[in-house]
């Protein structure tokens, strides 16, 4: 039985990298029927894309998204820094699938501003090669971390996250996250938004931010590499979905016809929108 959800936001999936948890994301997407799905950047990792590595689960995620857009779901693809190539297709529409750089929505009388967030990252804007090098280093760290966690799991011990340890203990990382959240929130307050939603920093969050000019709620959808998280809006309330808290309730659904499609059949679906 699928859950009906008003609005779902996911980001930082990084399809095409070794760290991407595509199988888990597919199980989540198969469990919901959203009215609106927002893909908030870095869904496909163009920076680290290799023709030799794009396994079936990664392709199935793309097929699932297209399948949703062929039916009843409005799908917005907001571009990020790792999939910046798609920015040349801004305002492109393919049926219910729309490509954009930012999105403004109004839900229950409240204004929501959604964008990826890399605009705040100086390393991306001014030293792209450094950011790309960092991306490769992060991907390598995740691969090593996955191997370590495999052994820990076999020994019955709790999994460990190298990157979370670094983020939580390196002062510059902690400050960067805090500054990122504050900057996004203050801009949202200045522009009269009730909610501001970002991705980019792989840090799921919902927090209220106030200053002399007003207040807003800052939200971050996290990622599908380590946190395996999404934002859900339903019954006038925002919540963070954590895959690990619900995985026992999610089942593999191989009955979905799109999962058996090959690449040529996928192209047939795309041409239906033309």
TrEMBL record:
The keyword NAD does not apply. This is UDP-2,3-diacylglucosamine diphosphatase. It holds the Pfam family Metallophos. InterPro entries: Calcineurin-like_PHP, LpxH-like, Metallo-depent_PP-like. Residues 7-204 form the Calcineurin-like phosphoesterase domain. The keyword Cell inner membrane applies. The lineage of its organism: Bacteria, Pseudomonadati, Bacteroidota, Flavobacteriia, Flavobacteriales. Keywords: Cell inner membrane, Cell membrane, Manganese, Membrane, Metal-binding.
